[in-house]
Design goal:
This protein is α+β, with helices and mostly antiparallel strands and 597 residues long. The chain has helices at 9-65, 74-82, 118-126, 162-168, 173-211, 226-261, 280-289, 307-321, 364-400, 406-438, 450-467, 486-504, 550-555, 562-572; strands at 89-94, 99-102, 128-134, 141-148, 152-159, 265-269, 275-278, 331-339, 342-350, 356-362, 446-449, 471-474, 481-484, 509-517, 521-528, 577-581, 587-594. The protein has 3 domains: 2-168, Beta-Lactamase, CATH 3.30.450.20; 262-362, PAS domain (Beta-Lactamase, 2-Layer Sandwich); 369-594, Histidine kinase-like ATPase, C-terminal domain (Heat Shock Protein 90), CATH 3.30.565.10. The chain is built from 14 helices and 17 strands. The structure holds adenosine-5'-diphosphate. Adenosine-5'-diphosphate binds at residues 495, 499-500, 503-504, 528, 530-533, 541, 547-549, 553, 558-564, 587. The chain crosses the membrane at residues 16-36, 173-192. Its EC number is 2.7.13.3. This is histidine kinase.
Length: 597
């Protein structure tokens, strides 16, 4: 089941906004904090700068008078009185920590060692130091500033009152500015995430639909942002891709359909000889060739009959693997394989990706027809040779013997005529049988009244029958009609009657019966009570040029094609013919003809 797409557009936008909001907030706080610190430092530096001036003045005074001499600190007091900050406290501390002067403390002897005061400590290490704290000596809060002059420290201190505190406070104007900037950024962020988020949400929806093969809205607008442009391009690429994929799968469908209806067996294998595509004919043919157990068609390539094909495939796949580019368009080979009474044509095509196709065609019929045609041609040549040799012999004898006896000459001419007749019959039969086999579409189909057809035929045979003292009996219903070809129907009865007259013997009787009919077929029997045919000849009697009694057949002007024509004409009418020796005497043919072909 396909999962519904969550309505996550606004959720995503919120997440995106929150993410950037946090970043902007942290950034603003860092800038604010840094700036605040800078501001405070600046204020302190400014204050310390002023205190430093006082320190310098005291130092200059001490330099002038010397600390070792009994310094008259009243001069320092005077100096302090000159300073603009009257409440400034000045202390002079020796490098041993003893306070030698403090403007706010009269009894300096009572003061403890000042070396451990934080501002003094700081100035030991970095020449100057400051500290805000409560004074241990006066009990008031001061901003202390101490400077190290190696032999002594001069320390100035400003009592912390409201105006000092105000001065030390950082300027907050910057924060108003920063806050304003933050507000503007947030507004911009809302606008940007709205736009950007919309595009992203739509793109996400599109990606999910595409992944789940759902319909894509081709008119989806991703907006005019750069992301929107990119999204539009992605959709276009996707649409082109799906068009190509669809076209490809349609082509594949066609190919598979073609494979299924193809008369030949076709299969495609991958380079490891695994079957990837095939049709049912292929499986049929291969199972006829060798029963493949457990559907493992790789066994096919172990069959000795296919060794050449397997070698061909292996050789070419190996060459293709080593980047060999063949200078032929198609790498293919053919091989004819005979198994039992069947002949198969195997064709292999190796593709450039080392996959390969094997097609199998049952060419047994084609091969048989080829053999039959070859035999037929040989037979025809042989059959033609006899009368042609005889005719040329007679004519040459007449020509070479001008004084030949007239009777003899007439005899020779008559014999030549007989042979010419035979020749013409032969040519007629050959062309007729060729027409049935190779161009039977030339025979027209019509309603043929078989009763009338046989009746008329008998008038043609009247004389011959009389000469042979033979009788014919037939009991066809007057409306016995077959929708077929009259010429072929005629050839069936004509050849059978003709044969009986020729071979059965004088005084015999022919019987033609329409002994049965069903919905589709009429069933006939044809019998004569003549000499019949020896049992051993019966299986081959319908073959072309096959004669049971060669001498007699030739003597009677037989072409050896009569029964072959009968068989083909019956087959044309979708029937079958059998021959049997009669129990009593003679021969019996049974055949069926379809009422409508
Ligand atoms: P042909 O042109 O020699 O008659 P057919 O194919 O018609 O050739 O017949 C083949 C052979 O079958 C004949 O040569 C003949 O020996 C034998 N045959 C056919 N019909 C009869 C028949 N009614 N009685 C005896 N032999 C027959």
């Amino acid at each position: 089941m396909q999962k519904p797409i969550q309505k996550s557009g606004s959720k995503y936008k919120k997440r995106l906004f929150f993410f950037f909001f946090i970043i902007v907030l942290i950034f603003s706080m860092l800038i604010g904090g840094f700036q605040y610190n800078q501001e405070r430092l600046y204020r302190r530096e400014k204050l310390e700068y002023a205190l430093n001036i006082y320190t310098q003045q005291v130092h200059q005074l001490i330099q002038k008078k010397g600390l070792n001499e009994k310094l008259n600190f009243s001069e320092v007091d005077t100096l302090r009185a000159l300073m603009p900050d009257n409440d400034i406290r000045i202390s002079v501390i020796t490098n041993k920590g003893k306070v030698v002067y403090d403007s706010f403390v009269n009894d300096i002897e009572k003061l403890d060692n000042h070396l451990n005061r934080p501002e003094v400590q700081k100035s030991i290490h970095s020449k100057k130091g400051s500290n805000i704290r409560l004074s241990g000596s006066t009990g008031q809060s001061y901003y202390y500033y101490s400077k190290n002059y190696y032999d002594y420290f001069v320390r100035t201190a400003l009592p912390i009152n409201e105006s000092v505190m105000d001065f030390l406070k950082a300027n907050t104007l910057f924060f108003y500015f920063l806050f304003g900037l933050f507000g503007v950024t947030v507004v911009f962020l809302i606008y940007a995430t709205e736009h950007f988020g919309n595009s992203i949400a739509k793109l996400r929806k599109f990606a999910i639909n595409a992944a789940q093969n759902r319909d894509i809205d081709p008119n989806e607008d991703f907006g005019k942002t750069e992301l929107g442009e990119i999204s539009n391009q992605i959709v276009k690429i996707y649409q082109n891709l799906s068009k190509t994929t669809n076209a490809l799968s349609q082509e594949k469908e066609k190919l598979i359909m073609h494979l299924q209806i193809a008369q030949e067996g076709v299969a495609i294998f991958d380079k490891n000889k695994n079957l990837i595509l095939w049709n049912s004919h292929f499986i049929d043919y291969i199972n006829y060739l060798a029963h493949i157990s457990s559907h493992n068609y790789q066994e096919l390539f172990e069959l000795p009959e296919l060794v050449e094909i397997t070698e061909f495939i292996d050789k070419n796949s190996k060459e293709l693997d080593t980047n060999y580019i063949p200078n032929v368009d198609i790498i293919s080979t053919k091989k004819t394989i005979t198994i039992g009474h069947k002949v198969f044509l195997f064709q292999v095509v190796v593709f450039l990706d080392s996959k390969f196709e094997i097609s199998v065609n049952d060419i047994t019929k084609v091969e048989n027809e080829k053999t039959i045609k070859q035999e037929m041609t040989l037979n025809i040549a042989h059959e033609l040779k006899t009368p042609v040799t005889a005719i040329s012999g007679f004519l040459e004898t007449i020509k070479d013997n001008p004084g030949m006896d007239e009777n003899k000459k007439a005899q020779f001419i008559e014999r030549s005529c007989l042979q010419i007749n035979r020749l013409s019959n032969l040519i007629q039969d050959i062309s007729f049988i060729t027409k049935i086999e190779e161009a039977n579409e030339l025979f027209s189909i019509e309603d043929v009244n078989v009763n009338e057809l046989v009746k008329e035929m008998l008038t043609d045979f009247e004389l011959k029958l009389l000469e042979a003292k033979m009788e014919i009996a037939f009991n066809f219903p007057s409306d016995l009609t077959i929708k077929g070809n009259s010429e072929l129907l005629d050839s069936i009865f004509r050849n059978l009657i003709d044969n009986s007259i020729k071979y059965a013997g004088e005084g015999c009787k022919i019987e033609i019966k329409n002994y049965f009919e069903d919905t589709n077929y009429h069933y006939f029997s044809f019998t004569d009570n003549g000499v019949g045919i020896q049992e051993e000849h019966l299986p081959r009697i319908f073959e072309r040029f096959y004669r049971a009694d060669n001498g007699r057949s030739r003597k009677m002007g037989g072409t050896g094609l009569g029964l072959s024509i009968v068989k083909n004409a019956v087959a044309y009418h979708k029937g079958r013919i059998f021959v049997k020796k009669r129990k009593e005497q003679g021969i019996e043919f049974f055949f069926s003809l379809k009422k409508e072909i």
